[in-house]
Amino acid sequence: MISGWRPHAGQQAFLASNAPVRVLACGRRWGKTEVIAAEIVRTLLGGAPRQVLLVAPSQEQASLGFERALEFLHRAGVRPTVRRTPAPTLTLGQSRLWARSGARGGTLLRGRKAHLIIVDEAAYVPEVVVTEVLMPMLADTGGRIALVSTPRGKNYFYRLYQQGQEDGIRVWSLRSPSWHNPLLSPTMLRMQASLMTQRQFQVEYGAQFLDEAGQVFRTEWVDRALLLNLPSDGLVVAGVDWARYRDFTALALVQGTRNQAKLLLIRRWQQLSWKEQVEAVAQQLREHNPVRVLCDRTGIGDPLLEALQQSGVPCAEGIAFTPALKQNLIENLALMLEQGRLQLLPDPALLNELYHFEATPTERGTRLQGAGNTHDDLVIALALAAWALPHASTGSILTSGRKSL
Ligand SMILES: Nc1ncnc2c1ncn2[C@@H]1O[C@H](COP(=O)(O)OP(=O)(O)O)[C@@H](O)[C@H]1O
Ligand SMILES: [Mg+2]
């Protein structure tokens, strides 16, 4: 089909299934995006006019699969018409492929029809997008859907996977660890294993559906928080976690009260100088004009805080993390999620950080952080922002820093 490309055994099994719903759960670097591209190309070159939709948690991720499919088409000697803005689309005779992010409820997609829908990293795409937006697009065409992903706990992707294990005809499913990709180097796998906790490696490379053990933010809370539809009113507050060493600088903006709040923006930046970090954060803050900004000043001290205050964010406050304070911040965030008081955004990096954020008992108390070497910058920024929210009862904000803690 595509010259020089041979599917490995797991990829062959996926391509061979005729089921209307296919669920493929595999580890990182298994070749998910690769097999998705192959499936798209096969469908486009099948002769009949076909509408193919590729969905992923973010536009960047959707573009990866799109570009890979385009490369395969070129290798097959086919030159489709390509448009990349506002979103990647290619046309080949009467067939078309378009690639979209499923993050914002997929409003752009409503009402369209498709013969084949593929969702890359499906466990990170909100369930409603799949059931209420994507599935109905197949009704008229009798089309097929494939959900391909690294697991993220026991969410809807897991339930569909299980359905496939029991059914096998309407729903086909396969779980396969990264090392089933024969091209993957064992050295790379060993290195990754050394960077992660065992549990995290079991999920990300072993493709296991694990939940709970040590997990602080349960997957069902997080998924439910994505489905909330809270009003956009109330004060805006922010949390900032500055990068140290190899970390990211992260910013979260939240609106509302501790009783009912909504995440407005979550962003991170890597490898910026101190000056650039301050400028990037200040620019976002000036745009949203929060009434309170809590910044982690652990190990950094006041220079960054002062720079931020001087960059048009006078309300920025520094807060030094003690283990007790960190515990309070994390518990507050967990409770808000558990009780459905915080609406989240389906940002894939945030969802991954929340999923891998662990509580580990130690001799000196509980250690709370991203498992192994996972980043937890976004979680910390979000926890700071949630902590900065006013209590519902007063509606007022305590800006004297210390007193409000
Ligand atoms: N059948 C194949 N033939 C050649 N290379 C492959 C094949 N499957 C996967 N790869 C390569 O393995 C790596 C991981 O594939 P990718 O599709 O990006 O994995 P995933 O999306 O599962 O993380 C890439 O470098 C890709 O080109
Ligand atoms: Mg991929």
Residue share in helices? 25-40%
Strand content: 15-25%
Going by CATH, the architecture of the largest domain would be 3-Layer(aba) Sandwich
- Intertermini distance: 63 Å
Short structural description:
With 405 residues, the protein is an alpha/beta fold. It is 35% helix and 23% strand.
Polypeptide structure, described:
There is one protein chain. With 405 residues, the chain is an alpha/beta fold. It folds into 2 domains: 9-204, Rossmann fold, CATH 3.40.50.300; 219-404, Nucleotidyltransferase, domain 5. The protein has helices at 9-16, 32-44, 59-75, 127-134, 156-166, 186-195, 198-204, 219-227, 274-288, 303-310, 323-338, 348-355, 377-388; strands spanning 21-26, 51-56, 81-83, 89-92, 95-101, 116-120, 144-149, 171-176, 236-241, 248-257, 260-270, 292-296, 316-319, 342-343, 357-362, 365-370. The strands form 3 sheets. It has an 8-stranded mixed β-sheet, sandwiched between helices. Strands 13-12-9-10-11-14 form a 6-stranded mixed β-sheet. It is globular. The relative contact order is 0.12. The model is unreliable at 398-405 (pLDDT under 50). The structure holds adenosine-5'-diphosphate and magnesium ion. The site of magnesium ion has 2 residues, from helix 2. The site of magnesium ion (MG) has 2 residues, from helix 2.
Please give the structural blueprint.
Elements: H1 9-16, E1 21-26, H2 32-44, E2 51-56, H3 59-75, E3 81-83, E4 89-92, E5 95-101, E6 116-120, H4 127-134, E7 144-149, H5 156-166, E8 171-176, H6 186-195, H7 198-204, H8 219-227, E9 236-241, E10 248-257, E11 260-270, H9 274-288, E12 292-296, H10 303-310, E13 316-319, H11 323-338, E14 342-343, H12 348-355, E15 357-362, E16 365-370, H13 377-388
Parallel strand pairs: 1-7, 1-8, 2-5, 2-6, 6-7, 9-12, 11-14, 12-13
Antiparallel strand pairs: 3-4, 4-5, 9-10, 10-11, 15-16
